[in-house]
Amino acid sequence: MTTTELNNPEAAASGTSGREHRLRWFVLAIIALAQLMVVLDATIVNIALPAAQKSLEFSDGDRQWVVTAYALAFGSLLLLGGRLSDLFGRRNTFVIGLIGFAVMSAVGGAAVNFPMLVAARAGQGVFGALLAPAALSLLATTFTKPDERAKAFGIFGAVAGAGGAVGLLLGGALTEWTSWRWSLYVNLFFAAIALVGALTMMAPHKSEHRPKLDIPGTIVVSAGLFSIVYGFSHAESHGWASGGTLAWLIAGVALLVAFVVIETRVAHPLLPLRIVLDRTRGGAYTAMFISGTGMFAVFLFLTYYLQTILNYSPIITGVAFLPMVAAMIVSATSSTAVLLPRFGPRFLITLGLVLAAVGLALLAQLAVDSTYSLHILPGLLLMGLGMGMVFAPGMQAAITGVAPEDSGVASATVNTMQQIGGSIGTALLSTIAASAATSYLSGRDITPLNQAVAAVHSYTTTFWWAAAIFAVGAVISAFLLPAGKLAAAPEGQLVVAH
C-alpha cells in the first residue's frame, strides 16, 4: 500500500490514490474511450470489408473470418482476461491491453494478404479480452459514491451500447474518404490518448488478496466459449443441420457443463459461482446476453435495408443511426442517475427490454417504399431509449456485491454474456433472414422488384424475431431480478456483498 493510501483511508478502501480520486472524471473519459475502441471494432470493419476484399483479393467465403476471428478470440478469452486483471492489477492489465490492441490494429491496417489481416483481427480480440474487463472493473473501483457511480455507469453504459453504431458511422466515413486500412489505423489514435491518460492519471492497483489462476477452469471455459462462438458462426455459413455445426455446439455445451463442475471443486475458481448465482447479478448477466442477441438485428439488417433498399451511402447509413445513439446516451445517463436509485434494476431493465421490443415491432413494418422519418426513426428512438435502460443499469447491477479482488472476472462476465449473445444473434437471425428470403421467392418470378421485396421480408422477419427475444427477456427479467434498489455501499467501499 502506498503512503498516499495510508494517509487517505477513503482512497485506500476504494483502491485509488488521492490524486486519482481528484482526477476521477478524467479517468472515466479514458476508460470510456478504451471501451469505445473495443466495442466499435466489432462493427467498424464490417463496412470496410468490401474494399478490403477487393484490395487483398480474398473470396466471399473467407470474408466472414475477418469478423469471426475477432469474435472468437474476444469471446473465448474474456473470463481469463478478467481474472488476469485481478491477478496483475487492473491498471497494468488495462495498459497492456491498450498497447497490444494498438499494435494488432497497426498490423491489420498494414496487412498485405488475407492471413495477415485475420491474424491481426484475432490479436485484437486477444488484447480486447484483457482491456474490456479491466476497464469496467476500473470504473467500479474509481467511483464509490452512489451518485457519482450512477453518473459514471450511465456514461459508460451509453458508450458500450452506442459503440456499434459509432463504428458503422466511422467505418463508413473512413472507407469512403480515405482507405479501408484506416478503419484499423484509427485505433492508434484512440489507444495513444487512452494510454497517456492511463499512465499519468491512474495509480497502479494491486490486490492484497491476489487470487491464484485456475488453470483447468481457464482451459475448459476458453475452449467451451470458443466452441460455442465458432459453432454459431459455422451455422451462419453452413446451416444448423450441418454435422460440423452440431459437433461444435455440443462440444461447447459439454465443456461449459464441465467448467461448472470444475468451479465447484477447485480451491481458487476462475469464476466463483457465487458471482453468477446472486439474483441481481444473474439477472443482469441474462439481460446483457439477451440485449446482445437482439441488438445485432438493428445494426446488421437495418444497415442492409438502408444501403440496399434506400440506397444510402455508408456515411449516411451511419448518420441514420445517430438518433438512436443520442436516445441511448440520454436514457443511460438519466436512468442510472435518477431512476435506478429510486426503482432498482428490475423495473428499469424490464421496461427497457419492453421499449426495445416495441421499437423492433415498429421496424418490422418496413416496406420497399418506407421512409426514414416516418417508418424508421420512431423505432430507432425507442430502441435507443430501451437499450440505455438495459446497458447502464445492467452493468452496474452486474458488479453489485462483488469483492474488489473479483471485480475483474465479474466485469468480464458482463462482456462475455454480451459477446456470446451477439454471436448467437448474428448466426440465428442471419439464418432466419436467409430462409425468409428463399421462402418468399419460392414460386415467384425472379424480378428486381420481387428480389427487393424478398430482401425487405427477410429483414422484417428478423425484426419480429428480435422483438420476440426482447419480450421474452423482459418477462425473464421481471421474474429473475429481485425487487428493490441496489445495495448501497458505505462511502469508500466498493459495494456491500449480498
- Assigned CATH architecture of the largest domain: Up-down Bundle
> What is the CA-CA span between the terminal residues?
27 Å
Main CATH class of the largest domain: Mainly Alpha
Number of strands: 0
Low-confidence stretches: 1-16, 489-498
Instruction: Assign the CATH topology of the largest domain.
Output: Growth Hormone, Chain: A
Task: Assign the CATH superfamily of the largest domain.
Answer: MFS general substrate transporter like domains
Give the gist of this structure.
The protein has 498 residues and is mostly helical. It is built from 20 helices and no strands.
Note down, in words, how this protein is organized.
The protein is an all-alpha fold. It has two domains: 12-213 and 270-480, Growth Hormone, Chain: A (Up-down Bundle), CATH 1.20.1250.20; 214-269. The longest helix has 35 residues, at 407-441. Mean pLDDT is 83; it is low at 1-16 and 489-498. α4 packs across α9 (146-177), α5 runs parallel beside α9 and α8 packs across α19. The radius of gyration is 22 Å and the shape is globular. It contains 20 helices and no strands. The protein has helices spanning 3-7, 9-14, 18-22, 24-40, 44-56, 60-88, 90-109, 114-142, 146-177, 182-201, 215-238, 243-263, 273-277, 279-309, 314-320, 322-343, 345-363, 372-398, 407-441, 448-480.
